[in-house]
Amino acid sequence: MDSDFDYFPPSDLLQPDALLSQLAALVDTSTLAAHDFDVDNRTGFMPPQPPVARLPDEWNAWEVVLEEASQGKLKLGTRDDLTDDEKAMSSRWRARVESLPILPIDNLGKSEVVIRRAHLVLSWILHFYIHTLPSSEPIIIPRSLTLPLLRVSAQLQLPPVLTYGDTVLYNWAFKEPQAVPVPALDNLRSVQTFTGTRDEEEFYLTSARMELRGVEALELMRSTMDEAFVGDDIATKRITTYLLRLSEVLSDLRTLLLAVREGCRPDVFYNEVRPWFKGIDSGDLERKWVFEGLLDTDDETLEEPKELSGPSAGQSSLIHALDIFLGVEEYSHSEQITGHEGTASTSTTTTTTTTLTPIPTSSTPMSSNPAKSAFLNRMQTYMPRHHRNFLNHLRNNPRPLRNIVANGSNAALLEAYNKAVTSLTELRDAHIIIVTLYIIIPARKATENVEKEKKEKGEEVKPLKGTGGTDLARFLKDVRNGTAGALFNSGSTDGL
What's any GO biological process attached to this entry (predicted)? Predict the structure, then answer.
């Protein structure tokens, strides 16, 4: 592979105070050959070496309380079967968090890998703290956690909440030492989990394996963009070959995604793992998160978070990069696709181009009204900032692949392009299958059980908000259908 994708150490990355807009203006957008994106030619969006496993001694207190949560096997506070001992253990642990000193973060910013670890540790503590609380108690996050988490998040330009990066990208190590630096797909383990179950670990590792397999897709993108600058018949033939190969890579990603069923049980995931992920905007978590200490701090850079979603595969830069590269982003990321009721829905699959609203080329800001912002656009704010820059860099390519296909008259190129888009659509079909198995069906079962209990007690039965994952199903189908809508009619490349 080309050395332009070689990994550069964290010291060569832009520091936290670098403005995204400045980077977008300075980089050469003619190719993917830029070093400021933290994208490696061997591991893609994952780091080429196992992430830092522990913070330096100055911040060891955070590591200790996280260890205590994991080793104590703290339970969800909303469970009905908690024993008095389990409740007391969680209460004692939260008291430990509340008694932590407010540690300074000045020296954390000197190392990208260290401050990433700080975000991971603090956000895991946050979710342990919130989700061990009984449902009857208000959610008040102690200042000992609020202030360092918000400060670290501000430096990293990330939300103060658990992200895909904290559960997948920077949450792995080797099972066994290996001679070659590139992680083998079967030699990975997750460092941090909530439950200590194989199910939870397999959920994270499925995404990690997909990230590693997707490295070839990134290389094919780079090669395609290089050939696009040549633009002759030989270049067109090479692009056609690259797209056919990309379709095979996407098929492999689909296989890896469906393989999650081999190690992660749907009932365990839904009932024991998924509740830990919930953020402020989860439909069934109506209690407000109060970040203690914001009102009496002199730090004007800290703001109360308005929207915090938990970790999601929608935060994977790889999938967004594929959308952008293939030119389907304006279809799959449309502002009309939110998964919320009252918004437009692409209800049927079509093989003709559509007229959905494209997303802006700049970094998408967080919205205080999720229903008014496309979900996938919002998820980009949860990505590492260098990866967001990579997507903007890719988006600003002056010779978009879709334009090349549309403006040409090469039947083989069109067929290869449609094959790649079809493979991406099939990957999204697989995602719908997994979400149906792991969320929608268990949610319906849970709803039926609640309704049965209420009927037995003579209580009024009301439909639960977001029951059965209906909004989620709608959203995923809309994204899938939007992707399919980017297909060109066979034998025609008229317009976009």
Answer: 'de novo' NAD+ biosynthetic process from L-tryptophan
